[in-house]
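[SOLVED] Need 3D model of a two-part complex

Original post:
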Amino acid sequence: MSDSKIVVDAISKSFGALPVIERVSFDVRDGEFVAIVGPSGCGKSTLLNILAGFERPDRGTIKIDGAEHTGPSPKGILISQHGSVFPWLTVQENLMFGLSGSSRSEQRALADRYTAMVGLKGFEAAYPHELSGGMLKRVELARAFVVKPEILYMDEPFSALDALMSLRMQTELRRILEEERHTVLLITHDVEEAIYLADRILVLSSRPTTIQTTLHVDLPHPRKLSDPRAQELRETILKELGL
Amino acid sequence: MAQSPGGIVKQPATSLTRIVPPVLVIALLIAVWWIVVARSDSPIFPTPWQVVTGAWELAEDGTLWEHIEASLLRVGVGFGLAFLVAIPLGLWMGWVSGAYYTLNPLFQMLRPISPIAWIPIAILWFGIGDLSPMFLIFISSVFPMIVQTTAGVRTIDRRYLRAAANFGVSRWVLFRRVVIPAVLPEIIVGMRIGIGVAWLVVVAAEMIALRSGLGYLIMDSRNAGNRYDLVIASMIIIGVIGMLLDGATRLLERLKTVKWRYVR
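Solution:
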């Protein structure tokens, strides 16, 4: 257990009389990419919010690097479905928002490097409302990566994008993860996205949610969804989800 | 495709469609006014031309500028003080729930009282000098700005506050980089309402016992020999200045940091 980055131990959560999460436990290794899929409304987002420290479980604990997790911190950045790029700051200012310590010029250089990494070179001075949905998502990713978080919590990050852009962003994310080591927890309802990206897939049951199945994805990157093993995995997951 | 019913498809507004129709409407109104006055042979009600010459007379001897200056100064001081009080108070009430629940009912009760109703109290407290209208302007513009600022803070999208918390920034950075810019559009709306009410009130306030200002000019023109040409000239000047004040406040909406709120 010593190489576990995140240890989730029997967490439960109810909203009033409505139980949402029931005794969910799992571990995440350092550098591992874990995708969580489940039927809509099953409490996936609540689970991720608890993991990221924005909500507290009623029971159970979360340990990160062996220490109990108490609240949000730059160690783990949450990327939500709707995005939270500050509309009143430029791309560069958004990236510099979470940076502290180093000098302004160092921060600016770092911000520009990550802007370039997500393919937005030349848009440093642009305001978010001047960008498309896909570009905004890149800003969001860059702003998370620039603070070098150990963990990324992604809540359906690409679901608001069109199918083509969503695929493109998945490829980009994989490319960045090859360059930088992060532990990632991804909530998604897109089974293929989970197979394409993750090392391990947790399938959740409907509410109150529990872990129904755990599947390992032992395929080398870059993955092809046309691979028979990937197809088989897809069938298995869909069956688990009742389809 | 062709024109859609109900104007769902936005037509690009050219300077032609934005300038010509309103100018035509105003010209038509002036023409009707002129014809009616000329036909009716009214001894008191002036023609547009009499209004123009009357205003010119005042402009030439300099009294018009003095009145305008006096009114603007009162609005400037009263509104400025209201701004200095309302913005910090509104931010505090928006941020701290205790402050909101304690003070909001009081302000909601004071807000609907017409500033005109404060006139007797203003005279009692501040006499009949410059301070009374300044106080009335303060009273009239402080509440809309408090309410707007408070509402702005309370409706900041939670995802931005969460993101700020996630990056672990200090309270000062949170306030300066997230809360203030997020509320700025609401503050500007509050300023527009505030300055609009302030301008309405200054004219009313000057109608009592003052010896300067556009409100005084109106009352004085009527009392000093039914100079209705000057009454109407003052009204038009008040309207134009009010429009310019609003336009100046609206310029703030063009600030780069608030533009996000107005584009769609």
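Edit: Chain B has one domain: 48-261.
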